[in-house]
Amino acid sequence: MIMKSKLLAAALGVLLATGATACSTEDRRTERWATTENTNVKLDWDKVNEAYKQAEGPEDLERRINEIYGGSEIISVSVHDVDDKAQVVTGFFDRDKDGKVSDPEKIFTIRRELKGSEAQYQTQGYGAYYGYTSPFYSMASGMMMGAMMSSMFRPSYAPMYTTPYVTSEARISQLGAHRSSFRATSPAFAKPSKSGRTYGGGASKPSPSAPSRGGSRFGVAARGRHVDRLASS
Q1: Contact at 8 Å (CB) between 220 and 61?
Q2: How many CA atoms lie within 13 Å of 144's alpha carbon, on the beta-carbon side?
Q3: Which of 169, 172, 150 is nearest to 218 (CA)?
Q4: The pLDDT of residue 33 is above 70
Q5: DSSP line for 26-77
Q6: Which pLDDT belongs to residue 163?
Q7: What is the pLDDT at residue 156?
Q8: CB-based contacts of 93: which residues, under 8 Å, 6+ apart?
Q9: Would you list the DSSP string of 137-168?
């Protein structure tokens, strides 16, 4: 009887220890992401994928992404050409304002690969958005798309290997001001009053402080004195 009691106590101890370890691991994981992401905010992935397709350049992409995102944080964007055919776009919360992407800050990556006259891209979620993986979206030369995508089909396209585009601290301030103006005039963010009326509706108008919609001459080589821009800055 004493032997059975000892075995039962030992087994119970193992179960409690295992449960405590699992809870501790889960707590650490939850805390890790709670400090870097608003986990209550959902992302409309269809809009994110379309934003990349339609963007005129990195600055236009980060503007579109922050209009989609409903949280209080500003999403920074890193755009890097791995080689002359592959590009990786990363959306992240730049908490330490160092202009660099760290794993705990990642929200999503978009990887684009060029194959002859066609290209494909796919979006992957991270952190609180882990588990989302888009299908492969196929693009062909001549399709309707923004300059950020269409420029890769141009002979003048120049990949940026060592100096990827990253949202600057100054741009973060501009994006915050623009998004506040956008939300004030967007029906999607309108709040009904006590009288039942909805405020903040109507067409969106760019504010004087709105960030540029251009592409910062990203990924296009100069020819002589002429520079083929993605979009005007």
Answers
A1: no
A2: 1
A3: 150
A4: no
A5: HHHHHHHHHTT--TT----HHHHHHHHHH-SSHHHHHHHHHHH--SSSPPEE
A6: 80
A7: 83
A8: 36, 37, 73, 74, 75, 76, 105, 107
A9: EEEETTSS--HHHHGGGSTTB---SSS-EE--
Task: Report helix, strand or coil for 181.
Answer: helix
User: How far, in Å, CA of 63 to CA of 112, rounded?
Assistant: 20
Phi then psi for 173, rounded to 5 degrees? -65, -45
Q: What is the mean pLDDT of residues 203-232?
A: 41
The DSSP code for 228 is -
Eight-class DSSP state of 133:
B
Question: For the segment 57-73, what is each residue's pLDDT rounded down to a tens digit?
Answer: 999 999 999 999 999 99
CA 77 and chain centroid, separation? 6
Q: Which residues pair with 81 in a beta bridge?
A: 87
**What is d(CA 233, CA 228) in angstroms, rounded to the nearest whole number?**
12
For the stretch 94-147, pLDDT in tens is: 998 889 999 999 999 999 999 888 999 999 999 999 999 999 999 998 899 999
For the segment 159-185, what is each residue's pLDDT rounded down to a tens digit? 866 788 999 999 999 999 999 999 999
Report residue 148 as tokens: 């950020």
